[in-house]
Each structure stands twice: as structure tokens, then as C-alpha cells.
Specification:
Layout lengths: L1 E8 L6 H17 L4 E3 L14 H4 L2 H26 L2 E3 L3 E4 L8 E8 L5 E5 L5 H4 L11 E6 L2 E5 L8 H10 L3 E6 L4 H18 L2 E10 L8 E2 L4 E3 L11 E4 L6 E6 L2 H10 L4 H4 L12 E5 L2
Length: 300
């Protein structure tokens, strides 16, 4: 399975056609290079606030609502692109006002879309400090989800969630082979926290972790003004994987896709015949296993 993970810059859109043009160009570029799974970063949807004008995009609360209002339309377009190019897409995450979750605050939500049109969402579980104040983002009420796809079993840990071992362990115990970790980090320290989380989860779960980053600077927002990072794909430093666990990385701050071909058979092999067996041995210590619920979702 060939994975493409994004270092994605935010742009200003004068109209909806400009968004569609950008989304199509990114998806087309990855698909043309053989990618089957495309991973966009956390809060990559904040650029949709520009469609409401600068007065809205510069106001935090108004921008959150403006993005949420556009998400059904953007999800529909990504669904169209997934079918057209025959790829799975993890959409840029967005603040979404969902009254089934919270009466008046947004959740941080991404959607995994299969080329057959099936899709489901994952909400962020644990909020960072800026999401608590001033954004006031609500914790997703839906549990972690195992997405069963034609490419393999996939889980999503949005940014900060990647830094909590039991969230990753719950997904591994449910059968996840690929952990997708869309991120939005302002400073290098934040990028490295998520990267170290991604590499640690790959080691512990003997799985592949995929980190996407928001990159660049904008002058039309007060909330996502400066971001840094790069795409990265990681595995356990063991049989069938690089000795340092780094399968592929991009370049800090440079926009574009990072690619790697990581067949699920490689994951099965290291779990069964690796020099160490972290995925299996974790549960040998009483209290280590996760009791967190995981929902199963069939996208095949």
C-alpha cells in the first residue's frame, strides 16, 4: 500500500472554485504517483473560513462557525475525488458544530473516505491548551474507531491524541495496522512531540504511523497564523523496517507530499517474527491493556 502524507499550506480562496481547484490538484498529484491512501493534516480546513471574507476569517469564533458550515460541502467534494481517483482520503480536520455531541461548541473532526463512497468520522479525544482556551473545542463523544478498509485496518489519532499510549494501544488491540496522525503545530517543539508520539506508537503497536502537518504562515487568521512540520511515515525499528524506524520524511516547513510503500504483510511479519514482540508482550504486565472502547466501521 502506497501512502501519501501531506505537509499542507493554508491558502486564501476568493470563491469555492478556488478550493476545488486546490483540492483536486493535491489529490491528483498524489494519485498520479501511485498513492492509495492520502492523509491531510489537522485544521487544514481552516482555510475554508476565507470564503466568508477577511472580517470573518480574522475573528476566531466566526471563523469556527464559517468552517463548520462548509464541511458538508467539502466532504462531498473529497468523496467525489476519492471515487474519481480511486483513493482513500483522510480529510483535513475541521471544527464541526454537532449538537449530538455538544449543544454549542465544536469538535475537531476528520473523515476517512473510501473510493466506494463509504466514509466515517473520527473526533479528537483530548484537547490541547489552545483548543481549551480560547477555542473552547469540545471533546468528541464518539469513541475511537477502527476503519476496516480494502487497504487494511486503519485508526486515527489527531495530533495531541498521538501522545497518549493507551489511545494507540486501544486501537492496536482492536486490530489496527495503520495509525494516521494529522497534526497542527506552531513550533518545532510541538512538531517533535507529535513525531515522538507517532514513533512511539509504531514501536509499541508494531504498526505503521503516518503523520501529516500544517505548514506555513497566513495573514488572514488570528488562530493558525504560523505552523510548522513535515510529513512522516514510521514503523517499528525491527524486522522488515528501517533500523531507525523512519520509513520516509519530508523537509521541515516545505509543502508537498511524502510517500512510502508499506504493505500490510510487513506489519503482520514483524508482529509474528520480529526480534521483539511489543504488540503481544504489552499485555503480559497486569493493568497494561487498554479498556477504552473502540467502534468498528466497515468501509470496504
Amino acid at each position: 500500500m502506497k501512502i501519501a502524507t501531506a505537509a499542507y499550506p493554508l491558502d486564501w480562496f476568493d470563491d469555492w472554485a478556488a478550493f476545488e481547484s486546490k483540492a483536486r490538484a493535491w489529490v491528483s498529484n498524489a494519485a498520479d504517483q501511485g498513492a492509495e491512501l492520502l492523509v491531510f493534516p489537522e485544521y487544514g480546513a481552516m482555510e475554508l473560513s476565507t470564503l466568508a471574507g477577511r472580517n470573518v476569517s480574522m475573528d476566531l469564533e466566526q471563523s469556527l462557525h464559517a468552517v463548520s458550515e462548509r464541511v458538508p460541502q467539502s466532504d462531498a467534494f473529497y468523496t467525489k475525488l476519492a471515487a474519481e481517483f480511486g483513493v482513500h482520503i483522510l480529510t483535513p480536520s475541521a471544527p464541526v458544530f454537532d449538537t449530538d455531541v455538544h449543544p454549542d461548541r465544536p469538535v475537531n473532526r476528520t473523515r476517512l473516505i473510501a473510493p466506494n463512497g463509504k466514509s466515517a468520522v473520527q473526533d479528537k479525544q483530548i484537547m490541547t491548551m489552545f483548543e481549551r482556551d480560547p477555542w473552547d473545542v469540545a471533546t468528541g463523544s464518539a469513541p475511537l474507531t477502527l476503519f476496516d478498509t480494502d487497504l487494511g485496518k486503519i485508526g486515527v489519532l489527531i495530533c495531541y491524541d498521538s501522545e497518549f499510549p493507551l489511545l494507540g494501544r486501544a486501537l492496536v488491540e482492536a486490530g489496527v495496522e495503520y495509525l494516521l496522525m494529522p497534526s497542527c503545530t506552531e513550533a518545532l517543539a510541538g512538531y517533535w512531540r507529535v513525531r515522538l508520539g507517532a514513533m512511539s506508537r509504531a514501536l509499541e503497536g508494531q504498526c505503521v504511523s503516518v503523520m501529516a502537518s500544517l505548514v506555513g504562515s497566513v495573514d488572514w487568521s488570528t488562530s493558525v497564523t504560523e505552523t510548522t512540520g513535515m510529513g512522516g511515515i514510521y514503523g517499528p525499528p525491527d524486522t522488515g523496517f528501517p533500523s531507525d524506524g523512519v520509513i520516509a520524511t519530508g523537509e521541515i516547513g516545505k509543502a508537498g507530499w511524502t510517500f512510502a510503500d508499506v504493505p500490510r504483510e510487513t506489519i503482520a511479519h514483524v508482529r509474528a517474527d520480529g526480534v521483539v514482540r511489543n504488540a503481544t508482550h504489552w499485555s503480559e504486565k497486569e493493568g497494561n491493556s487498554s479498556a477504552l472502547p473502540v467502534t468498528y466501521c466497515d468501509l470496504r
